[in-house]
Design goal:
Structural class: mainly alpha
Membrane topology: Multi-pass membrane protein
Number of domains: 1
Family: Belongs to the UPF0391 family.
Strand content: under 5%
Low-confidence stretches: none
Order of helices and strands: HH
Organism: Rhizorhabdus wittichii (strain DSM 6014 / CCUG 31198 / JCM 15750 / NBRC 105917 / EY 4224 / RW1) (Sphingomonas wittichii)
Subcellular location: Cell membrane
InterPro entries: DUF1328 (IPR009760)
Number of strands: 0
Number of helices: 2
């Protein structure tokens, strides 16, 4: 997902530099959304791994 965020960011910056500000802004906005979704998923999965690891180590 971070790969797509980076691709949309680069495309948005290129479009903005070429004068297509509206479309470029939309791509940059989409890149921001994808970036924050990826960060949120990372945090959720890190917490799940932390709590699952504690339960497994407690039961052994």
């Amino acid at each position: 997902m971070l790969k797509w965020a980076l691709i949309f960011l680069v495309v948005g910056l290129v479009l903005g530099a070429l004068g297509f500000g509206g479309i470029g802004g939309a791509f940059v906005g989409l890149a921001k959304i994808l970036f924050f979704i990826a960060i949120a998923l990372f945090i959720v999965f890190a917490l799940l791994a932390l709590f699952a690891g504690k339960k497994i180590s407690d039961s052994i």
